[in-house]
Amino acid sequence: MPNIEEQIREIEEEIRRTDYNKKTQHHIGLLKAKLARLRIEAEKRKGGGGGEGYAVKKSGNATVSLVGFPSVGKSTVLNKITNATSEVAPYAFTTLTVIPGLLEYRGARIQILDLPGIIKDASKGKGRGREVLSVVRSSDLIILMVDVFENNVDILLQELQASGIRLNSRPPRVTITKRSRGGISVSYTVQNPQLSEADIKSILGEFGYYNADVVIREDVDADRLIDVLAGNRVYVQGFLCINKIDLVDEATRNELLHRFAHLNPIAISAEKGIGLEELKQKIFDSLNFIRVFLKPPGKEADMKEPLLVRGGSTVGDVCEYLHRDMRRKFRYALVWGPSSRFPGQTVGLDHTVQDGDILTIVSRK
After folding, report:
1. Of the residues 60, 96, 352, 365, which has the fewest C-beta atoms closer than 10 A?
2. What is the residue range of 93's domain?
3. What span, in angstroms and rounded, lies between the C-alpha atoms of 30 and 108?
4. 118 and 156 in contact (C-beta within 8 Å)?
5. Does 54 map to a domain?
6. Single pTM value for the model
């Protein structure tokens, strides 16, 4: 019997040579499910896949990863917009580890990570790609970096996809609840779904689900359903940064911006300092910061220096940012503002804060 790697290659080849149409949809969906399951098993056997990783201590209000090919200018960007000093040289693979820098902008402290260059098959371990991509997975924002000459963005997107990173997407609105008996029950809240009940049952079977309640709340395809079942996907916002724009004419610049419009691109020249202020603003805006004003117990709220946190943050997230012990010692919080039902509402760790909230956190001594 072929080993796992051979099985993976055989299935990948079968998917490549099979034309996608209505008749083959079910077969291809099943092949993709088998492929995803085998890849997960292969990673488990490798102990997470990848040798010694990069140790990166997260700091600041958010972490941003610069992801791109070797020698596209990631280090120069880092040096120009942060307090870091990353070695810069005109040859590939100058950066052999993760170099962090701190961007201070509009009251936010944003950690920027200069990562070793990504190459084709990085997700399979080539060029220490697994270690690099493991750092990217924990980022709050991904900046895809190319230059005006090396701009095959599809390779970067494919490597992110293969490593379980879903760029500019959100988790599928699908719930799967295991049960002890009764088979698989599928219910839809969408009309004319792509996946039939038979498709869904076959894909679930590949992951060992034989008794479950499945609710489909959006029109997912096989890939999106497999993402739910795999359970190891991360959903991260990002945009494209095209560097060295000073080396081409305006027509070429506009053509590149038009070609990659779906990735919300920005054109810069790190070397010449062109577009760097716009890049800082774009990073700040993309991170979707909100302001939370802290009110110590029995004192007035500090309305001059708000705490910046990511949109969607909870009281628990605020505690972790303020001090690592605060969440452990947490008793309750009081909130005034947009997220409260009434002034001074008592809330717990899972309460989601909103922009402009005033928050008091009460901890155990």
Report:
1. 365
2. 62-169+233-286
3. 46
4. yes
5. no
6. 0.85
